[in-house]
């Protein structure tokens, strides 16, 4: 009889076949999870939990995950920095996430833009004098025609979209790597910790 791996988290119990790993590509995160959550707020995934990113430090996220030993995934509602603005609040009690580099385009098939990926680094303390850490986050959001035509009319507001459930995925490799999905409109973000060598979840800003 085939053995089945059982992952337990709180009162939840998930049966998985030996060798099972939840490791979606950037395009799969956008098309199979982020867009689904944007279209239906009741959408849930077996391997993805829920968390408030602004109330959690990156090193506390693994224990809040639904499953996984080296990868953890979460849905998280976007928190605006100002009630009437579009900027996202990226601060936690211990520090803040700061964007770095250019956003990367994510395509499906031949040249169909479906999303963007932003890279952020976690700093301890308060801006602009925070201390840089090894925690890195990749933030994903829907983009292109895909971000508009795949959403229900109730989710479309004027010239921009409101995505309330970012997906966060945390991944750990030699160190700790986390991934988060979000779009700001809804975003996705991936976070990881790097040692000597640099390694690597629904918004607009």
TrEMBL record:
GO molecular function: DNA binding
GO BP terms in the entry: regulation of DNA-templated transcription
Annotated keywords: DNA-binding, Membrane, Nucleus, Transcription, Transcription regulation, Transmembrane, Transmembrane helix
Superkingdom classification of source: Eukaryota
Signal peptide span: none
Ranges that cross the membrane: 160-181
Record domain NAC: where: 16-164
A GO-annotated cellular component: nucleus
Protein name: NAC domain-containing protein
């Amino acid at each position: 009889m085939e053995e089945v791996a059982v992952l337990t988290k709180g009162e939840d119990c998930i049966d998985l076949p030996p060798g099972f790993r939840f490791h979606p590509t950037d395009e799969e995160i956008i098309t199979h999870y982020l867009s689904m959550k944007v279209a239906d707020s009741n959408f849930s995934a077996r391997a993805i939990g829920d968390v408030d990113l602004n109330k959690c430090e990156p090193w506390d996220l693994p224990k809040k995950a639904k499953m996984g030993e080296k990868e953890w995934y979460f849905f998280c509602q976007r928190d605006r920095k100002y009630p009437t603005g579009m900027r996202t609040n990226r601060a936690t009690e211990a520090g803040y996430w700061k964007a770095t580099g250019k956003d990367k385009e994510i395509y499906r098939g031949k040249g169909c833009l479906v999303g963007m990926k932003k890279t952020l680094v976690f700093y301890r303390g308060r801006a602009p004098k925070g201390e840089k850490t090894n925690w890195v986050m990749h933030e994903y959001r829907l983009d292109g025609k895909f971000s508009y035509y795949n959403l229900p009319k109730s989710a479309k507001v004027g010239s921009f979209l409101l995505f309330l459930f970012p997906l966060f995925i945390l991944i750990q490799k030699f160190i700790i790597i986390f991934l988060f999905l979000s779009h700001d409109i809804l975003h996705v973000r991936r976070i990881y910790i790097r040692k000597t060598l640099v390694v690597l979840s629904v918004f607009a800003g």
